[in-house]
Amino acid sequence: MSVKEMILDSKHECMSRDEMAALQGERLVDLVNRVYNNVPFYTKKMKELGVEPGDIKGIEDIVKLPFTTKEDLRNNYPFGLRAVPQSEIVRVQGTSGTTGKLTIVPYTQKDIDVWAECVGRCMTMAGLTKEDVIHVCYGYGLFTGGLGMDFGARRIGAMTVPMSAGNTQRQIMCMEDFGATALTCTPSYALHLAETITEMGKVDDMKLKVGIHGAEPWTEEMRKKIEDILHIECFDIYGLCEITGPGVAMDCKQHNGLHINHDFFYPEVLDPVTNESVGDNNLGELVFTTLVKEGMPLLRYRTKDLTSIDHTTCECGRTTPRISKFKGRTDDMKVIRGVNVFPTQVETALLSMGGDISNHYMMIVDRENNTDKLTVMVEVNENLFSDEISKLNDLKKKVGAKLKQALGISAEIKLVEPKTIQRSEGKAVRVIDNRNL
Ligand code: DLL
């Protein structure tokens, strides 16, 4: 099949930079008028900055607009930022987060259609068509994972198996019986499924060819591991409920960055302290403006996700900019004894050791006598645990040295037996911070 056939909307996904900027400009002007006139929160914020809708003439004027933060959503919970009458809203979605109130997002029918289009484009990017059977084990409910994937699968006419999370044995039975060709769930759950399928001796009974994973940071090493076990190609899908849910961006078969659905979401990558653009290929905080959203449009939403952006045309033919695999979040990052540490750094280091080490780990940060202490619990293989103690001690030293090299700080290593660390069916929890900072 030619590259063109694998693009759902080649007009928008392959648009020239100038045409795209013109389209985004028109959409931004319309958006600013809508929020200024319908959302008192934005009327006030824009007045405080001395900006009026007439000051926004093109996409380059976006820098004049105010930022929106998660805190703003919390303060306006649940529907304070709605930009259309309640009767236009057909659905709410959200996320529980780990602390505080829910984040709630109202959608109009058009918002749902745009969301379906985004996920449909992503699924097409992975080579999926109406011939495919898509096994969804993201949760259905307020969380956007399950329904988002469902809308996308429907958009391309594939058959959806709406399993939701949980009951791994049953998931595997249905994957086999219904002939799933694509699996979509968090990467951590994909690995758990892959390991269980292997234990059951069923890898060769599966028809799987594609995995679409996201909702949490994961590394290239983790991708490779899932691909090697299941003999599939895995794609990294990104999204957040505030912007639409999954489908804001995904990597194509080149696996060289995640293409943003640029006609719908305008990205900026900013220095989180100065709020200035960091330019292409430099790490910064991803900020999105929802260009066509009706229910709860957002201006310059601070995602706290750290990435870099590349505006060059991809080998796949798409012109939409690509963001690099996520390094973590500004708030996922832990500062331990003054050093910035991301869970993904630990994962990369552990997976590169292979052999006796599994990728299941947990970081625990404590403060003892005013000094930060990092403990990393790591699962090792079954056979190693029944071996001599000296072997375990050697391994412990090796893991400690590897992590010290990767993180720049030392950590206490606790090797634990297989299956000691709790598996997650949704987003994996990798860090427990007991410091009450
Ligand atoms: O996690 C939406 C989603 C569902 C994305 C299914 C992909 C697949 P929220 O619950 O609002 O929405 O959480 C959004 O999750 O700001 C990131 O920090 C993180 N995240 C999402 N996708 C990725 C990814 C969904 N591919 C938050 N890589 C975001 C790294 C991700 N982090």
Automatic annotation (TrEMBL):
Enzyme class, first EC level, given as a word: ligase
SUPFAM superfamilies according to UniProt: Acetyl-CoA synthetase-like
Residue ranges annotated for the AMP-dependent synthetase/ligase domain, each copy included: 84-288
Molecular-function annotations in GO: ligase activity
Entry keyword annotation includes Manganese: no
InterPro entries: Adenylate-forming_Reductase (IPR051414), AMP-bd_C_sf (IPR045851), AMP-dep_Lig_C (IPR028154), AMP-dep_synth/lig_dom (IPR000873), ANL_N_sf (IPR042099), PA_CoA_ligase (IPR011880)
Domain AMP-dependent ligase C-terminal residue range list: 338-435
Pfam family membership, one: AMP-binding_C_2
Catalysed conversion reaction: 2-phenylacetate + ATP + CoA = phenylacetyl-CoA + AMP + diphosphate
The keyword Nucleotide-binding is annotated on this UniProt entry: yes
Pathway the protein takes part in: Aromatic compound metabolism; phenylacetate degradation
Enzyme Commission number(s): 6.2.1.30
Keywords, ordered alphabetically: Ligase, Nucleotide-binding, Phosphopantetheine, Phosphoprotein
Function, as annotated: Catalyzes the activation of phenylacetic acid (PA) to phenylacetyl-CoA (PA-CoA).
Family under the similarity heading: Belongs to the phenylacetyl-CoA ligase family.
Protein name per its UniProtKB record: Phenylacetate-coenzyme A ligase
Organism: Eubacterium album
Upper lineage: Bacteria, Bacillati, Bacillota, Clostridia, Eubacteriales
